[in-house]
């Protein structure tokens, strides 16, 4: 059963369909939230909140909508609610040995959400451009521009950290 | 967003255009021509060069981000909360019982540790040349293909029923010419190198065709010391991320520097000049100095571009990163489009005389195209040639509801539509399946994900993609058919695009049972070689996780073709409804291998029939198929309720009325005897009786897994289905 069919079944009260949808999408939604929020504990809260909102919204799902994009739209709002503003810059670069990933997570948190999410989708979820565009409800050119802007800001953060 | 627009115009393009190219370069999508344009621009634009350096450093940091996997408890908690809300009950709120693990990443999911020893990418060894097509003395095996029972998992070949219609689900194909040994310089620089020889003699004014580019000679007076600093390559694993250089006052290169450079390998990055020497006199305008400077710049830029052409410019992943990425790719794989060529040394049916099929141990080549959608099914069109003769064609489209097979060609073609087919590989209702690639690629993905003996050989750029070359040392079995496997993974998706299986003479016995091959066959195959290539799979036109449209599953049926409809009467049912559809209590595995999840169930609603070797086994009064899938491999569990109890099994049930070469080995588990069966012609399967229920697990999985599944089956409900995940 496709994700769209699962959502429609869930809208009819089929809890098993909702469960299957959650289990299908949980890995990518969780990874997305972990990247967006920069914290596994917050991501575990975020994934619960995301699918609670999904459960409340299944009746409003439009069958013409990409189901994954629909769920990620909800996850995006959850991430925005939990971490609405960018954090402070990630600190000195290069980071000490062994702290590269933490630096990268801090750097992501320092990005505005619309820039952060494209890098999360590309660098963590390893999605290609069409899939990112579809999931984020954006066109490919916009996603490309946001990727460059995000990387440029990271580059500026690196430069600033050395100044 | 900060911009870098404060410098003057740079050669060849403006800053915005350069930034767009930088973005593409960072993402690895820059073609050679545009890469050259960018390199030219960076020579003349210090600001862009600095930005590019920092973008690369940022990218290195980003690549260290790991894919965090939710634990089962986290997912379970989300399920509990969401389904509670769905039922209209009050949201219980965040689950207190869910404690996020201190570190949710599996140990080998750590993409952030650049802990591999620093080394340059290792060129992939020259491919072992394929032995010339070898055909051995045919082996005659009785096979009445018309008498095959069709509610058993078996090869697609059996479904088609005749040699010219058999598919190659288990069998395989061949490959294009092996790639040239070692890394290749591609793109315009390769052509230039071939044309002009010494790259130090290249002249940009001959090569640059980007709008606004100026002849190099006009840049003489503008060249500074920074022009001689290569754009930074991404650091190798284990190397501290490079520190951006402080912008030095423009200086000129000393003749000594210049003379030393051409003979020395181009450094990945030039160390910052010591303070004492950082300030030098500005370049003079002397023609000799400018000329030599130009040569050095060109050589360095060429070296940079060539190196990037060979390596793709990225950081070599660690073995753990490769395992995780491959595991993730296959666990999350939703769709696939690919062309493929599989060349396999195997046992092939090559002719038939009445009910007698003749097999030959030969090099077979299957070439085809696959469209796979995890939710819908797959379509595959392929042909198999053995010793230059086409022995099989496959035109099949399989969806949840039916299996469509196009037999023959032109106006004589017949479209056979089997509705409500049973589940089970590879009898046509294998859902989902990677078709011919299920065996060739799925098994390798499984090996990569599970092995500890994986060497990352390096990054390499092919004409159409960047790849990660890896090597696996594997246990030689009837499934691996190799003791060493070289794999080129698409660096973007980590999907295997070239798989080469080799085996040594001492391990060759696993290629097929001795009783089938005989001693002479292997001797002929190896001749005087110690190692031979047993399978070479090349995948091209690869598209992963694209949207698959319904039209992609439609076969192109020739005008005038007839249609034959068959209803196999296997009804797909939800798990909760299974018990009500059967006359017996169904059994389910109490444990399935890591990563497998229940995918679909089907019960037979047709008239029971005899089955087994020569139809010797009595009719059951109920049949249930259940598929389990881990993102790479499908295992189908079939159970038959025998109303008169168990009976002696005297051969694999897949033998049907044929004498397919199936080797059966008894396996004991918990004081019960089960059987594990392998064959070049059908998927591995394990079977036995549990009470009055005959159970069988079929799929390209190790014996322990298949036997373990059937041995664990009991009346309790199956384990809660979980989506395949990449984490253990």
How would you characterize this protein structure?
- Chain A has helices at 3-11, 15-37, 40-57, 67-82, 100-109, 113-124, 129-136, 140-162.
- With 163 residues, chain A is mainly alpha-helical.
- In chain A, helix 1 (3-11) crosses helix 2 and helix 2 crosses helix 4.
- With 728 residues, chain B is of the alpha+beta class.
- Chain B is built from 15 helices and 23 strands.
- Residues 1-11, 96-286, 303-313, 425-432 and 718-728 of chain B have low confidence and may be disordered.
- At the A-B interface, helix 2, helix 3, helix 5, helix 6 and helix 7 of A face helix 1, helix 3, helix 4 and helix 11 of B.
Quick rundown:
Chain A has 163 residues and is mainly α. Chain A is built from eight helices and no strands. In chain A, helix 1 packs across helix 2 and helix 7 (129-136) crosses helix 8.
The rough form of chain A would be described as elongated
Please summarize the sheet with the most strands of chain B: 13 strands, mixed
The overall pLDDT of chain B, averaged over residues, is 66
Give the largest chain-chain interface (CB within 8 Å).
A-B, 72 and 79 residues
- The helix-and-strand class of chain A reads mainly alpha
H/E element sequence of chain A = HHHHHHHH
Radius of gyration of chain B: 30 Å
Average of per-residue pLDDT values of chain A: 86
How many strand units of chain B? 23
Largest β-sheet summary of chain A: none
Note poorly predicted spans of chain B: 1-11, 96-286, 303-313, 425-432, 718-728
Q: Which geometry of chain B do the CA atoms define?
A: globular
Report Rg of chain A. 17 Å
Helix content of chain B: 10-25%
Based on DSSP secondary structure assignment, what is the total number of beta strands of chain A?
Answer: 0
Q: What's the helix count of chain A?
A: 8
Tell me the fraction of residues in β-strands of chain A, as a range: under 5%
Q: What multimeric state do the chains show? A: heterodimer
Low-confidence sequence ranges of chain A = none
First-to-last CA distance of chain A? 55 Å
